[in-house]
Input
Amino acid sequence: MYGMRIRAATDCVDLGCAEKDETSTWHLLCLALISRRLKAARSVRSTTSSLEGRIGETGSVTVSGRIRFSPQLATLALVLSLTVQAASQKVESISLPGTKAFPESITSTSDGALFVGRLGDGGIVRVKPGTAERTVFVQPGASGSRSILGVFADEASSTLWACSNDLSALGGPATGSDTGSALKGFDLKTGVGKRSVSLPGSQAFCNDITVDAKGSVYITDSANPTILKLSPGATTFEVFAHDSAFAPPQGGAGLDGIAFGSDGNLYVTTYTAGELLRVEVKDGRAGRITTLSGSSHLKLPDALRLLGNNSFLLVEGSGRLDRLVIRGDAFTVTPIHGGFATPTSVARIGTTAWVSEGQLAFFFDPAKKNSSPYLPFRIYAVPLRKEDIK
Output
């Protein structure tokens, strides 16, 4: 399953195409063998009286109850039935509205709803729990918003937090009124705007979001070596942590994914440098900052989501979803699924990881400005094994 290419050009997405192809093979095999058995039965009928068929005036065929199906035939019929049933129940991907959606982040709520931020078209899409029904929940331009990057559903405050950045010069939405970078807060039930807090500085870039147990919001600023904090009731950000290890390289992006671990510390990724760092947290304040060593080098690490005992789901922009486990000052990476076209984020619902495929090269790379992304944009369902969610 690892390394399988995912492509959203048709409804048959390759995340499930291998399984669909395998299913089709089972169908053909079963049908061929059943056909062979029935042909054999018709041959027997022509030479014996075991099968008695008569055509009535209505043109229907009546077959005697003495037809005997072999155990093998019954098994094949059962396999075919179960295979068809399983194939019809499985959800493999959900398409997103918008020809320039470029999904950048995804979050979920405990009832199974999904929220997807759109970098190209702006606004936030909501996917109804347990279905593929999706609507534009937050309209492009709402509360002055521009391109939507990180999204985080904070059920405790009933707030859908979102990072908004003005990328209109690159082809992003021009409907909003903001000219810089801001954190937006929308009502989690209605999508109505609640908060808007601008990031400090003229070159800030709000990327991803997490929230602590007391309701403080933390964001990564990809353009500066800072993690910002918005305390409950505050109207401005404070610098929670600042370190040269967070700094973006020339022409690259800096801080990206952010999440609290089960140890209460804060973990962040740096996109271009490919690092994972821990910020020790004590009494709500930042302490020592450590760059962790890994079992393999991370390639464009993006979203980070807590799984269990200091284990995380991690999306690598190079095309992969991983399970990451931290032990001391080191971490190990286990691939879960590869082959995405610039995956940008992940959200977990039960034993399924939903991955947003951003195809961001078609947005940011000037060489691809005249090329079209594979439509429709999609989010993909990746089944998690027991060992993936420890």
